[in-house]
């Protein structure tokens, strides 16, 4: 599974757009990029997943350049409740895969009033 | 409501005792997982099961055991052989066994062994 690198922490203010970039230089052809969010003492929650270009849902956008060696999670107009740890994961999709997710330390986002 | 339940939320045990953590899901998911999380760290995979009556070791299986006799249940036993059992334990499930599939996590069990 491809190793990912993301900033340990980020600060932002309410109402701002936050972009968290993840580096995954060894991403394989079959790998998908997935982001999870975790609040203290809770299990992670799936945010968004993509393979290439741009994916958008009601919570976030995911930008993936053509070489797919990095990806950027974009959170529009953050609020205090977006304070959490954000994990970038890269793994192979499809049947036959173990479903093994590797969670690094993630990025701790602190949103200030 | 569909989801994953873990019980209890907090668990205290004396060193040398085995303890079993419960995980139940009513999402009709085939795959289930157990993770361990230590303070300030990401999650590490202990065991996973892609189908009933089958399971595989994850990255840190030593000192743990599991069973998967029913689709909806995947209990984890922390044995006395586990050197540092105090941690936050998370159970998850997904439709399929590929990492492409969204994993749904339970609320977790915080185990303290003294």
Quick synopsis:
The complex is a heterodimer of chains A (113) and B (114). With 113 residues, chain A is mainly β.
Notes on the structure:
The complex is a heterodimer of chains A (113) and B (114). Chain A is mainly beta and 113 residues long. Chain A contains no helices and nine strands. Chain A has strands spanning 9-13, 18-23, 31-38, 45-50, 53-56, 61-64, 70-75, 84-92, 107-112. Chain A is globular, with a radius of gyration of 14 Å. Chain B has 114 residues and is an all-beta fold. In chain B, 0% of the residues lie in helices and 49% in strands. Chain B has no helices and eleven strands. Chain B has strands at residues 4-7, 10-13, 19-25, 31-37, 43-51, 54-57, 64-66, 76-78, 87-94, 104-105, 109-113. In chain B, strands 2, 4, 5, 6, 9, 10 and 11 form a seven-stranded mixed sheet that branches. Chain B has a four-stranded antiparallel sheet with strand order 1-3-8-7, with no helix packed on it. In chain B, a hairpin with a 5-residue loop joins strand 4 (31-37) and strand 5 (43-51). The N and C termini of chain B lie far apart (36 Å). The A-B interface holds A 1, 32, 34, 41-46, 49, 87, 89, 91-106 and B 31, 33, 35, 40-45, 48, 50, 56, 58, 88, 90, 92, 94, 96-108, 110.
Order of strands across the widest beta sheet of chain A? Answer: 1-9-8-3-4
Discrete helix count of chain A? 0
Count of helical regions of chain B = 0
Uncertain runs of chain B: none
Beta content of chain B comes to over 45%
Mean pLDDT of chain B, as a whole number?
92
Helix content of chain B: under 10%
Oligomer: heterodimer
Helix content of chain A: under 10%
């Amino acid at each position: 599974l491809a190793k990912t690198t993301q900033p340990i922490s980020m600060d932002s203010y309410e109402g701002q757009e936050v972009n968290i970039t993840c580096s995954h230089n060894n991403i394989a052809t079959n790998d998908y990029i997935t982001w999870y969010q975790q609040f203290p003492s809770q299990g992670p929650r799936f945010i968004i997943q993509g393979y290439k270009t741009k994916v958008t849902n009601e919570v976030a956008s995911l930008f993936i350049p053509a070489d797919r060696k990095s990806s950027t999670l974009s959170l529009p107009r953050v609020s205090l409740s977006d304070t959490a740890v954000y994990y970038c994961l890269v793994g192979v999709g499809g049947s036959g895969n173990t479903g093994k997710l590797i969670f690094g330390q993630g990025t701790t986002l602190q949103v200030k009033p | 409501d569909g989801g994953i339940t873990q019980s209890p939320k907090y668990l205290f045990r004396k060193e040398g005792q085995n303890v079993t953590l419960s995980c139940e899901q009513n999402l009709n998911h085939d795959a289930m997982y157990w993770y361990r999380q230590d303070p300030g760290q990401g999650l590490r995979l202990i065991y996973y099961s892609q189908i009933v009556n089958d399971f595989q070791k994850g990255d840190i299986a030593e000192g743990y055991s599991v069973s998967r006799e029913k689709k909806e249940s995947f209990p984890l036993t922390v044995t006395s052989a586990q050197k540092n059992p105090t941690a936050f334990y998370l159970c998850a499930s997904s439709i399929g066994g590929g990492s492409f599939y969204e994993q749904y996590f339970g609320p977790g069990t915080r185990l303290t062994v003294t």
